[in-house]
Amino acid sequence: MRAFIVGRWQPFHKGHLEIIKKISEEVDEIIIGIGSCQRSHTLTDPFTAGERIMMITKALGRYNINYYIIPINDIDFNAVWVSCVESLTPPFDTVYTGNSLVRELFSEKNYVVKKPELYNRKEYSGTEIRKKMLKGEKWEHFVPEEVVDVILEIDGIGRIKRLDEKDYDDYF
Known about the structure:
By secondary structure, this protein is α/β, with parallel strands linked by helices. It is built from seven helices and five strands, in the order βαβαβαβαβααα. One of its GO terms (cellular component) is cytoplasm.
């Protein structure tokens, strides 16, 4: 059996890792969708699709998990989004999502949809991790060490801080 899960993975953290590991116990292969792949260089989506692929690939490297990583664009046309996903991915039977819209769209197309159990959601939140990065607080223990390496390699902290800078034009 092959399953699909989509997320923004901004950044890929230990909560995401636990969900992927749990799904891998239930299916033979996982298709990991890089959602909103066209978005990057913003405070909510600071990392590119390629950087997120690096994070996930390196973090999963030590596990015996069969997976594909597929970038998925936002198309702002919900009625055809599932068809778009289907055209980009290998066939799959099951969708794992905690997102109510994604759940509804795939359910309407008769997919088996499961809601993964979130792993310590208060602690493992991309939003909170990005806030810690911005404030100069400790964030490294929330993500796999391979993700720390990628973020340091691409100067992800510097990028987030630069994105938060205010230009003089903002004050006039």
